[in-house]
Amino acid sequence: MSIKRLSATDGIWLSLESPDMPMHVAFLLEFTAPDGDAARYVRRWRAQFTAPVPVPQPWNLAPVPGPLGRLLALVRETDEIDPLQHIHSRRLTRVGDRQELVELATRIHREQLNPARPQWEIHIVEGLAADRFAVILKVHHSLFDGASLMRLFTDTYSEDPEDRDTPELFSIGRAQSAGEPHPDAPAPAEQPLPNPLTSKPYSANPLFSSNPLRALLIALRGVLELVRGIGSAARDALRRRRGRRDLPQRAYQQPHSIFDGPITGGRDLSLRRYDLARFKQLAKAADCTINDIVLYLVGTALREYLGEHAELPQESLTAGVPMDLREQDDDRVGTRAGMMFTALATDVDDPLERLAAVRAYIGAAKGHMADMSPNAVIGYGLGVTLPWILGLSWGFDRTPASHPMGISNVPGPRNPLYWNGARLEALYPISLLMHGNPFNVTCVGYNGALHFGVLGASDSLPPMEYLTQSLDAALDELTALLLPAEERVMPSAG
Fold it and tell me: Which of 322, 296, 347 is nearest to 478 (CA)?
């Protein structure tokens, strides 16, 4: 057994783990069996796993117990895993009842992963229909983020419905062994790659070289870039203390609302699926991005949701928007993401003016980070959230949060995927919640649809189904405002 250290970013997720804040993320995937017999498909698959099996990193990594292990983000490698501890069978009591499926996913999601084991579980669910079954994949955020999980699905599943040699999810490794980069080092790149904010290429950054001095200098450059981003966050913090309210990053600028304060382990989940074509139509008509449309819809839905079931603040609510900073060939363990902080224009009455304001807010946040290197962007996010994270790590659950909610849009595969012939019909993301951050909306694009997972703290917020109903209404309203009747694509919601 060997001991390894996770990166500073990934170590944060381990340090925050608690019964009220389990730090895992999940996906609910729905499949159609290739021969129409879901029970037989599941039975044959489960029969392969009756004895312990070896798995690669990160599937074999378990947290090192104790305060020192949490402080240093230490994990230990296990030689093999017991499938009975990680793969679980479930069955709906009411065949085809989608509400029961969502309630099951919610119960599974709110339970902590066993800290003595590698941090993942697979729950395979029967009873959707004779030919349908579901898989709930649950993994700790220190091992994967939403973007890296999407890459996992792409790497694992096939676009060929006749393929019967699909590897298992937990057989696809993100190795980080001796001779590979330190977890806090910058990601490797053989050729210049585009900055996700500007499309300008970063300079080539090969991490390994026959010249050890050059490799050391590259690693040092990555650390300096990280420190530069933290310094930029510190400067913005000083400007906020001096009363600046016009900074491009809207961290620590949310008004008091029902999103303030601590949470418990209670969770409420609601799911929606929309036709991606409609979002593309709306983005084209408004001359903006799909991500802008998502932010607008969430802000608009929040106006109705809070107006009817709580209290809408007079100032705009804000949100944290993750940015995937992984390069195309970066498959390392853990997370590599930055964070932008934007306003949602929930204080603007007119829908089109609200959309324009959302575009302006997120455009300013993107412009602020456009010239930063990926490590500087990560450093900025760490610097901004550090006071909040440290407070939570020390047990202060009322530490002011940098943002009251997360909103994430994760690109996914455009073509249908298959797992040994079983067609992947839908995949819904389920994120995590924290004290001061009790609400999250994550959407994933797949095969012509956007799949929304809306998660809230059930002890402090009205039911999430009210929010997703408002999301439906916001989408219909914007469609009526922007598109002529003959161009409107009807949404598929579920």
Answer: 296
Mention every residue, 6+ apart, whose C-beta is less than 8 A from residue 162: 421
- What is the percent of the chain where pLDDT is above 70? 88
- Cα Rg of the chain, angstroms: 22
Of 27, 18, 460, which Cα lies nearest the Cα of 266?
Answer: 460
- Residue-wise over 150-174: b if at least 16 C-beta within 10 A, else e? bbbbeebbbeeeeeeebebbbebeb
Q: What is the pLDDT of residues 357-384, one digit of tens each?
A: 999 999 999 999 988 988 899 899 999 9
The residue extents of the domains of the chain are 3-174, 212-407+449-485
* pLDDT of 123 higher than 60: yes
CATH code for the part of the protein at 3-174: 3.30.559.10
| Secondary-structure class of domain 212-407+449-485 per CATH | alpha beta
**Cα separation, 420 vs 164, whole angstroms:** 4
| Long-range CB contact pairs, 13-16, < 8 A, 24+ | 13/140, 13/141, 13/142, 13/335, 14/63, 14/70, 14/73, 14/140, 14/142, 15/70, 15/71, 15/73, 15/389, 15/393, 16/389, 16/392, 16/393, 16/434
pTM equals 0.89
β-partners of residue 446 are: 449
Element (H, E) at 150: helix 146-156
